[in-house]
Design brief:
Elements (H helix, E strand, L loop, with lengths): L14 E4 L1 H36 L4 H23 L6 E5 L2 E5 L6 E4 L3 E9 L2 E8 L7 E4 L5 H11 L5
Helix pairs in contact: 1-2
Length: about 160
């Protein structure tokens, strides 16, 4: 997969892989399941409220809480579904890593910007934790489900020192 903006930064080197495709599939799956926990009851509450109001012509104090609860649960379900848009894209090159946030500026970190790496675990996945020299102290994680993980692991071992 050729790099579109390689001419902008020749320090990047050749494209190796990106983490977002597999990561997004996992995250979207989990978020869809969580959203269903809210959306399905919301639909039932709205249907019951409509039934009480339109068909049975019950007093307002019986169907308004159904509508309010349905809208409340539906709002949270939609909010959860919209979260997967905020996951940053991570591209790995021979010369470093590009972080593309959903909003904001794309940042290229050459390997010299990193202190080193550690092996870690994130839920059930093995990850490589890359630690920046500057920043908030949170590592950048590259998990084992990434395409060409062995190449990435080899590249990280060549370019960075292992932190204990």
């Amino acid at each position: 997969m050729p790099d579109k903006d390689r001419t902008d930064n020749p320090e990047k080197g050749d494209f190796v892989t990106e983490t977002s495709s597999e990561t997004m599939k996992i995250i979207e799956d989990n978020l869809r399941k969580a959203a269903l926990l809210y959306i399905v009851p919301a639909i039932f509450l709205l249907a019951i409220g409509f039934l009480l109001w339109w068909v049975l012509e019950m007093p307002w104090w019986m169907y308004v809480p159904m509508f309010a609860g349905g809208v409340f649960l539906g709002f949270f379900g939609i909010l959860i579904l919209s979260l997967f848009v905020s996951v940053p894209k991570l591209e790995i090159y021979q010369g470093g890593i590009v972080i593309k946030p959903p909003k904001g500026r794309t940042v290229f970190h050459p390997w010299k910007d990193f202190r080193g790496y550690r092996w870690g675990k994130l839920q059930d996945l093995k990850v490589i934790e890359l630690n920046l020299k500057k920043g908030d102290g949170k590592p950048i994680n590259i998990h084992e489900k990434v395409d060409r993980y062995d190449e990435v692991k080899k590249l990280v071992r060549e370019k960075l020192v292992y932190l204990k």
